[in-house]
Design a protein that fits this description.
The chain is an all-alpha fold and 285 residues long. Helix content is 79%, strand content 0%.
Length: 285
């Protein structure tokens, strides 16, 4: 029963995160990525505030925990801005698999900071890196399309590194601080350091056509995270592996709904990333 719960929760998280990715790829082409990010941060903070504040401020929330939460928040904000920019310029089928390597980035950061990881981790990190390189290679005759593919892959790779830093920071205090606060504080940081300044400067523009996509992005991201944690209570490994397949679902969705086409070398890179992330997640979990 536990395995079934983990699989269903992981699948639900993957579907929600894939939906969020596809929605963002549309909204960032209707309004600027900064407008999307400012609104998504506000939606996330408003959604999680009641859950976080219901139990009051946790006793374990001290200076060290606030520091790590701040790092997580800043990394999440900048990472999302880069991810949204990559979705505005690049293909979902390339961007989503690269950003899904955030767990691999967290593992790499842990290695650099002196942690010992499971055997085979180094090999899987190498597979993922090769996959990212292959996914960024475009065979298009159109120079503009080649440039968009490369910029999208570059921004997505930088986003994955920042998301990895955010995951590492969250992991440093996740056992001491309630989950609602782990999710809420980084989004509150995003509102304070990004949403409010952008609003004051008049940089937030929203259209009636873009708003449903933006709301879907914000709500699906939060709902996916909550489902992930429900499944993780039963089996972290199973939930993490299944939920990481959001990248493959997003790529398939982009092919069916947007008519995206990947070249063979890019497809090989995407497959390498998906396999590498799945195996690495299992090793780490």
């Amino acid at each position: 029963m536990a395995a079934v719960t983990a699989i269903l929760a992981g699948l639900g998280a993957a579907v929600l995160w894939a939906t969020s990715t596809l929605s963002t790829s549309r909204s960032t082409r209707l309004v600027t990525p900064t407008s999307v990010l400012a609104t998504v941060m506000a939606i996330g903070a408003a959604t999680m505030a009641p859950f976080a504040l219901a139990g009051g401020v946790p006793d374990a929330l001290g200076g060290r925990e606030l520091l790590w939460l701040g790092v997580s928040g800043l990394a999440n904000v900048v990472g999302l801005l880069l991810a949204y920019t990559s979705l505005r310029t690049g293909k979902v089928g390339i961007v989503a698999p690269i950003t899904s390597a955030q767990g691999a980035a967290a593992a790499l950061i842990a290695v650099l900071l002196g942690e010992t990881l499971a055997p085979g981790t180094g090999l899987m990190l190498g597979v993922i890196v090769v996959g990212v390189v292959l996914a960024s290679i475009s065979r298009a005759d159109d120079g503009m399309e080649r440039g968009r593919d490369r910029r999208g892959a570059l921004f997505a790779g930088c986003a994955a590194l920042l998301f990895g830093l955010g995951l590492y920071a969250s992991g440093r205090m996740a056992e001491d601080v309630p989950l609602a606060w782990v999710v809420f504080v980084p989004r509150l940081v995003g509102v304070v350091v990004f949403s409010v300044p952008m609003l004051v400067l008049g940089r937030v523009r929203m259209t009636r056509r873009a708003l449903p996509f933006v709301v879907a992005s914000g709500l699906c991201e939060i709902a996916g995270l909550l489902l992930f944690n429900i499944g993780a209570r039963e089996s972290i490994a199973v939930t993490a592996i299944v939920s990481s397949q959001f990248a493959a679902l997003a790529a398939a969705g982009a092919y069916m709904m947007f008519g995206e086409r990947l070249y063979r070398v890019q497809l090989a890179g995407v497959v390498a990333i998906v396999v590498g992330v799945s195996v690495l997640t299992g090793l780490q979990a």
